[in-house]
Amino acid sequence: MRTEAAVLWETGQDWKVQEVELGAPMAGEVLVELAASGICHTDDHMVNGALPQPLPAIGGHEGAGRVVEVGPGVADLQPGDPVVLIYIPACGRCPSCADGNQNLCDRGAGRREGRALADGTLRFSAGGTGITTMCLLGTFARHTVVHESQVLRIPGDVPLVPAALVGCGVTAGLGASLNTAGIRAGDIAVVIGVGGLGAAAIQGAAIAGARYVVAVEPVVDKHATALALGATHAVATLDEARDLVQEISWNRMANAAILTTDLAEAEYIAPAMELVGKKGRVAVVAVAPSGQRSANLSLLDLTLYEKELKGALYGSRSPRAAIPAALDLYRADKLKLEEMITTRYRLADINQGFADLRAARNVRGVVVYDD
Predict the structure, then answer these.
(1) Span 2-167+336-368: which CATH code?
(2) Whether pTM exceeds 0.70
């Protein structure tokens, strides 16, 4: 079939919105018509080369839509089902899944190659040239074919546009607060960066019952959004955050800090670790450049104060558990999704969406496919 997609042909170039060819689903695969796709900093890392992927590629790894067709052997999904796409396969059979770590599924190791799990080939092409897909999804296309392990049916009463956000950013930020950082009632939490990840992490800290939630965001226009989503304080710099946390904690510092910046730069680690006190946890949710190999921090404090520095992928929880849990909170009016969306774009305007992302104009931008 033919469909429309945003294709990246070379690193550093704009997305080219064009018609592409899409093959039929094979055994274990599902054809999905997308309703919406989030625009995430991780997509931009593919553009700027921080996260290299074989090109040409269709971007996008946050999406929701409806099943159009299922391939042979797919028993749990049928045409018409509303679904959220999962950017890490959760096969349920590999050693990681067997240990309960479906967010670290071994089958996900090849997702940066962008080739189909079923047979290692490509489903998209243009002019005879094969096209890879980001995280094996490619949600910057009106239709995509993905493996059933990356498709999760959701309740029919959940609107598909906000549901797209729980495929990555919401579950990552929310789970970083609830699971990775283990925020508890009465804690002091600091969220560094108020984009999509940070907006979800703020809500997670508030849902957990944190006494104070300090948002750190240099774009002052985002402070009102941070406060509306559950932050008790909003400051522009890490120095301001340190002084504030010293004051409100009586010099004991925060229980947890969550790094949700656009990129996990090495220079953020030491200040983040200084924000937390004894037994404090720092969760790194933001993605670092693929070549980043070092970061500065006090190893003495790490030992003497038993601080922890932890990575967080998919909120440290199985996607098939994290996504329904997030949607349950949304349906109970405890998690705000629509309020996180700053701007909706048509696919034809995707380059404007990325310009707004880079200029920090949005908390979340979303591509909406419905005409």
Answers:
(1) 3.90.180.10
(2) yes
